[in-house]
Design a protein that fits this description.
Two copies of one chain form a homodimer. Chain A contains eight helices and eleven strands. By secondary structure, the first copy, chain A, is an alpha/beta fold.
């Protein structure tokens, strides 16, 4: 099973690495980080570099396609090359997935027209404007399309997907291996639970404001 | 505030990237991935390469020291160079932290003698044999030492640390920015909650068995 993770400059690293840590543990999985060119890809903080070890042309028909988000999604959506790859890979994929604002890339590629999908909570309006039916949920499955909410939601998405691909017990083995028994020290992970002041502060500095 | 994340071949990527995603968002934080030499570092799956953009010698006195785990910890503990750096960096650090079996590296460096600490649930016995006082907790704070349980626990550890460093509201802002409102699809994240059969299967293939 070939899994392609699209990476690009100014991606949010955890969007990609959370699901990678889960999906790479699936029996028979071969996961590859791909970009429009081989070589270094710099994350949104400017402090982390991942290597793309293959180009998108090297992996035209992955079984699973995973698109992370981050501020670099804007440049990806402004170019045609990666969008054409997403569109084409989706035609033959078993699963097409995204994390955070990666769903804006899927939507711009035309993959989410009329589909239920999610994104970072700050980006749901933009997701709607691109033709998807946005859902305020952590993980949304619509047919073969699986989308996750912001950043850390990719871990929940990947465990859900692992269960769909390999069954519940394999997914549970992976969950136990990565000791995913979350205990957030604060209750501020969603706009519904966070203090109003915290929500307002984040909205004020959001690029989606 | 200088944050150094020690990386090494065969590390578990999420151990490092989970906390990176949180701590890099702290006001005034400059986070650097360091290794015993500059250049590519391959993760435990063999499918992901991170770049170390500085050597440990370039960052001798970080304010925050973070040591991830993964099977590569064995080789790190067998060499003297990184251990000497950990020992020396700990002398002047404000916070010394680890995720997963990164605590075995801290312990081998002599930093955890008589200290309460945690590790991946499969590695707690080994942590005890190295002189620490192992705790079955997700995040353990003992003075300036903050250790996390397996892999994904690094996110909880980093949010805890973010609160200690910058206050609760900043930590909550980061939590909301990465939408950390976890919803694991299965209840199998700890040996206490996972089905017995799943625990037994993982114990059977563990390198700590």
């Amino acid at each position: 099973m070939q899994i392609a993770v699209l990476i690009f400059d100014r991606l949010t690293a955890l969007d990609a690495i959370g699901p990678y840590e889960v999906l790479s543990r699936l029996p028979g999985a071969a996961i590859t980080f791909v970009a429009d060119r081989r070589g270094p890809v710099r994350s949104d903080t400017g402090r982390l570099t991942l290597l793309a070890e293959a180009t998108i042309d090297d992996v035209p028909r992955p079984d699973v396609l995973l698109v992370p988000g981050g501020p670099g999604e804007v440049a990806v959506r402004a170019g045609e090359r990666s969008l054409a790859w997403v569109r084409s890979a989706h035609e033959t994929s078993t699963w097409t997935t995204s994390v955070c604002t990666g769903s804006l890339i899927l939507a711009t590629a035309g993959v989410l027209n009329g589909k239920r999908a999610t994104s970072h909570w700050l980006a749901l309006d933009q997701l709607a404007s691109l033709g998807a039916l946005p859902q305020r949920e952590r993980v949304v499955v619509d047919g073969k399309i699986v989308t996750a909410a912001g950043v850390s939601a990719g871990i929940d998405m990947a465990l859900t997907l692992a269960g769909l691909i390999a069954g519940e017990e394999v997914a549970q083995l992976i969950q136990l291996a990565i000791e995913y028994d979350p205990r957030p020290p604060f209750s501020a992970g969603s706009p519904a639970s966070a203090p109003e002041r915290v929500v307002a502060r984040l909205q004020a500095i959001s690029r989606f404001a």
